[in-house]
Amino acid sequence: MVDINFLFQQLNHSQKVQIYTGNMKPMLNEEALFSDGTINYRIPQEPSSQDDIKVRIRTEKENVELVTLIYKNQGQVFDIEAKKINSDKTFDYYEAVIPKSEHQTEYYFKVQSGMATCYYNRRGVMDEPIEYYNFRISPDYKTPDWAKGAVIYQIFVDRFYNGDPTNDVEDREYYYIGQYSSKVKNWEKYPASTLGVHEFYGGDLQGVREKLDYLQELGVEVLYFNPIFVSPSNHKYDIQDYDYIDPHYGVIVVDEGESLPDWEKENSKASRYISRVTRKENLEASNAFFAKLVEEIHARGMKVILDGVFNHCGSFNKWMDRERIYEAQEGYEKGAYVDENSPYHNFFQFYNENAWPYNASYDGWWGHDTLPKLNYEVSHTLYEYILNVAKKWVSPPYNVDGWRLDVAADLGHSSEFNHQFWKDFRKVVKEANPNAIILAEHYGDAASWLQGDQWDTVMNYDAFMEPITWFLTGVEKHSDEYREDLRNNYDSFKGAMTHHMSRFHTQSLEIAMNELSNHDHSRFLTRTNKRVGRVQYVGPEAANEGIQKGIFKEAVVMQMTWPGAPTVYYGDEAGVCGWTDPDNRRSYPWGKEDKELIDFHKEMIRIHKQSKALRIGSLHLLHGEYGIITYGRTVEEEKYVIAINNLEEEREVLIPVWKAGIQNEEPMLRLMETTREGYSIEPVSYAVCSGTLRLKLQPVSGVVLKTKNG
Predict the structure, then answer these.
(1) What CA–CA distance (Å, rounded) separates 276 from 282?
(2) H-helix or E-strand containing 643?
(3) What is the pLDDT of residues 483-510, one digit of tens each?
(4) How far is Cα 63 from Cα 76, in angstroms, rounded to an integer?
């Protein structure tokens, strides 16, 4: 039986007025107002400079007297009365047209009913207009359609799978940061707690190739590789040669011996050797192998994203050659560290050059002398070289589908230069491959780069990873801090999400990389233990202790249903744990996977991929309270409701699904329910009564429902 008194308490004030009086004119119902930048509320969604743009807003039916569109272009402000164009049983829809323009347009809505007035912008209802949260339209800003809501899989290659043991890094093959390289014989060994860059497990691109069936069965649509260019470290964010795939990830066709001799070091930081990876035969063969691999991945309908590290290179780089490995090799110019007359000298910023060469210092990223910062402002040759690298890998024969840009906001020595570089970068990449994605690593407000002339999107820390991990676990993304006041705090979650999402254009939000874990932060599954720790202080086993898979499954439900491109860090789906770097880079547990978690990921990925609403639909925050989040994802023909209960007890909630446009005659079908113990895809039907869905949520659970008519 429906609890009428309880339902009545859920009504807003204007609805109660109508019930009391029967004929009194209702007050403005702010909860019914909705607009965003998706296909239902902006037409066209990604307009060109030659398109007039229809923008729409939804109101409660017969509830408002006047809707005004207020827009700003080139400093001028315009008011247009919006016209009612459509109605259904619950809502009216108003539309106004913004004339075509070559310049960015900002807009918001003013809504009036009787004495009541409010404003609606990117963040929602406001008492006063706030320019910071205006909707924004950048003409000709298009992001790749294939990336909208795409399921991405991030691979740290050395730890994924060893498909070709003949290309393994051998013991003592490299000497780097005070140590020789080490070949890890035990695939299951935990990474070293410090200076783990010397450890090589043997994972390679042939290993990826052999696991393509697995990735395709999982439902992956895009492979994002951490750096794979020539480098002496296992993470390869210290690139030695941008023109070639590292033969230890590719193929070695000429091998001069499995171990290198001990050379007398000329100082404590360098030893001279000629590595297998500098042989032209191996470099060319590895590039050819990679081109073939991309072709095979494309044939399966999947895409490839490479990691571009363009802010800095490595001290091993052929332009610097601090370790003097190229000095005597045919076909290479002298490096900037070797010879002050090197053609690469101005690629870097040197200090105390009178101490040449061995005591000369140079500008390193964050002071790291193994990561010399590239000096683009001084060297036009370097500038053009890197732009050609950007173009090369998205062009035939490699044809990769885009770049993830490492520490992209740090590039250059000024903000003005940084923005100009990325404008030029975008131009050459998009000319070579118009459907390539440009995705930047960035913390904080990225709005100035997301105007349609630089990046397409970012790794979504602020509007995804951080709010979700605080709410579900109370643990900071490095596992460095615990905040009880943020765990289960819906108001904090909603405030962070709406604020940070407002800084995106919709087409950049729809392709934002939504990760729970990655190579820089602790594994999400470890964060569910609500413990602060790092491997060097508490040891690796502590990362496996006290974990709660029920919380992890809640997070995956949100990852697969929140706006953006859900990105799975290799092994997360198999139950891999780990503290922050380097412990988060454990090897994939082939043969010892958590099969239930893998099957669960397959089901959630399937639900995501089958849904237009979950890829590009509107987001409606429906109801939240301590420990509870409910929201809807909708397009005109398809509507979803997602509910999360992060509490240790069962909770019954009344969800105002009318806000998501769900009518009383639209019963809802449960597609997924997760619990602490497992998950269920058994279909269960729910009735909607008076625009409200009554739902009983199990402890630590997530539920995904869809309208049956959809």
Answers:
(1) 7
(2) strand 638-645
(3) 999 999 999 999 999 999 999 999 999 9
(4) 31
